Structure formats: C-alpha cells, structure tokens
C-alpha cells in the first residue's frame, strides 16, 4: 500500500477519460478535464491492453502532478488467473505486471483488475489458483521494488471470481493485496446491498476483516447498473438506475471512509455522474 501520500477525505473521479475532453481524448487531456471540472482523481484504463508507451506515461505523470489529480489504473479485461490453460495464466500474470509497471510510471497509486472466472473448477479451486498466481505477482513486484496497492475487483456476474467474501479473503491472505469494492457490481451480483443498513454493514465487514486501514484507503467503483438473475448486464447512468447512491455516500460519511471513488457510469454521463456523487457527498 502506498503510504507516502495520505488521503484526508474521499476523492471523486472517473474511470477512464471524461467524455467531453477536447480534442483527441488523450489521457493527458483527460487529466486536464478532471481538474477543470473540479474532480480529484482518474482511473487510467488499460482495459483493452497496456498499450501506453513509457514516454506517454511520464507525460501523464507530469500532467497529473501539475494538475493535482491523483491516479489509479485498471488492468486489461483479458485476465484469467484461473484458466485451465497455463499459458493463459502466465499471460494474465504478465498483463497485471504490465499494468503495475506502466501504472507506476504514470504515478498511479493502485491497480485494479478482475482476477478471473470460476470456470469448471468452481469457486473453491478458483480461489486457490488465483491466490497462488497473485502471490507470485506480489513477489515479482517486490523484487522490482514497485510499491503500489494491488486490488482485485468485486465483480458483477455470478460466474466471475470476485464476490465480496472472496475479495476480502484474498486481501487478508496476501500482504499488499486490497479489494476494489464495486458497489454497482455488488448490487447486481446479489440483488441486495442497496439500503443504508446493508451498505454500512459492508463497510463494517471490511473493517472487521481487514482493519480500519481498509476504510482509510478505500477504493470503490460506483455507477448505475442493469442486472438480471446472473448479475450485471450493463452500467447505467446513476439516475436511470435503481441504485441508492446517496445511501452509499451516507454510509461512507458515517464511517468516515477515505480514499478513491471512481465513477464508472457510461461514457456520455461519466463526469456528470462523478460530479453528482461528489456534490451529493459534500451536501450531506
Ligand atoms: Zn473493473
Ligand atoms: Zn468496476
């Protein structure tokens, strides 16, 4: 966990470059847009692969420092640490390492990724496989002296590894690993966790399992979401969804949570929804 920059409160920003970023939607321009509208952080999305050059990464780092925008990074979707094919596991590990290396060059303070799928092996074996691979990744990062927090995301589909219990368990088992709590995914996956009582209970479970430090350096994703029996269908604008985001923000406030709140609403409303979250939180 990166402890040299403490966070005094909740920081709000977008997952990826804000929509209305002129003119070419580069990451550097996105950082400018974040600062211009009064947001505080951005998650650099390497979701289609880590294609950013080291030269661009250092420009991103400089731009973020200059603008006072804090960064995190999201790894590629093509990751499955529980693949039955050892080559795919190896490629997945490499993609996570690339995310960490390039992310660090950008000045990102943590990386998040979806660890894998249950597949035929089932949840128990998936956890075992993912734990082994993740421990090896942490060992490599330690060797390379790359210190940033490594976060497995709470995922939206019941076929994906990453229930609330799983992301907390793996974080408690491997030093340096922490959860990325995607509250839209949690709601989609379970159909629950949409009331103040349920959402504060999540924060209390996090504190019980991982200690107060986990609430002092929380990383959350928030958006509206459409879901069915097997979980997530697609992300929605907050105000078109049934998600009670104000109740979530109230829970954050009452538990004095600190950290990054990344809005993952669809592109066209991404910065508007991030600002909606920020302003709603400030008005509590
Ligand atoms: Zn994600
Ligand atoms: Zn997410």
Question: Any overview of this molecule?
Answer:
45% of the residues lie in helices and 18% in strands. With 284 residues, the chain is of the alpha/beta class. The strands form two sheets. The protein has an eight-stranded parallel barrel, surrounded by five helices. The longest helix is centred in the middle third of the chain and has 22 residues, at 122-143. The two termini are 29 Å apart. The model has no long low-confidence stretch (mean pLDDT 95). One zinc ion binds at residues 74, 114, 153.
Series of H and E elements: EHEHEHEHEHEHHHEEEHEH
Rg: 17 Å
Spatial shape: globular
Cofactors, ions, other ligands: zinc ion
Secondary-structure content class: alpha/beta
Number of helices: 10
Name given to the CATH homologous superfamily: Divalent-metal-dependent TIM barrel enzymes
Identify the notable features of this structure and list them briefly.
284 residues; alpha/beta; TIM Barrel; eight-stranded parallel beta barrel; 10 helices; globular; binds zinc ion
């Amino acid at each position: 966990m990166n402890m040299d920059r403490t966070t005094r409160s909740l920081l709000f920003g977008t997952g990826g470059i804000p929509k209305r970023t002129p003119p070419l939607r580069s990451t550097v321009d996105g950082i400018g847009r974040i600062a211009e509208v009064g947001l505080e952080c951005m998650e650099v999305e390497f979701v289609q692969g880590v294609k950013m050059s080291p030269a661009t990464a250092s420009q991103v780092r400089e731009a973020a420092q200059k603008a006072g925008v804090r960064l995190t990074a999201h790894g590629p979707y093509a990751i499955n640490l529980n693949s039955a094919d050892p080559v795919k596991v190896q490629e997945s590990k490499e993609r996570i390492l690339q995310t960490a290396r390039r992310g660090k060059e950008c000045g990102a303070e943590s990386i998040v990724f979806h660890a894998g799928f249950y597949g035929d092996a089932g949840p128990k074996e998936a956890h075992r496989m993912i734990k082994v691979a993740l421990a090896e990744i942490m060992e490599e990062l330690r060797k390379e002296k790359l210190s940033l927090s490594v976060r497995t995301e709470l995922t939206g589909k019941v076929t994906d590894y990453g229930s609330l219990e799983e992301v907390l368990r793996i974080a408690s088992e491997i030093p340096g690993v922490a959860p990325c709590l995607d509250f839209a995914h949690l709601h989609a996956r379970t159909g629950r966790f949409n009331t103040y009582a349920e959402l504060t209970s999540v924060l209390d479970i996090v504190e019980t399992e991982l200690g107060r430090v986990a609430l002092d350096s929380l990383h959350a994703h928030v958006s509206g979401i459409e879901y069915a029996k097997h979980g997530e269908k697609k992300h929605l604008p907050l105000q078109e969804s049934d998600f009670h985001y104000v109740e979530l923000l109230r829970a954050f406030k009452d538990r004095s949570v600190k950290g990054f709140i990344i809005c993952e609403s669809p592109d066209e409303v991404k910065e508007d929804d991030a600002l909606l979250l920020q302003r709603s939180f400030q008005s509590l």
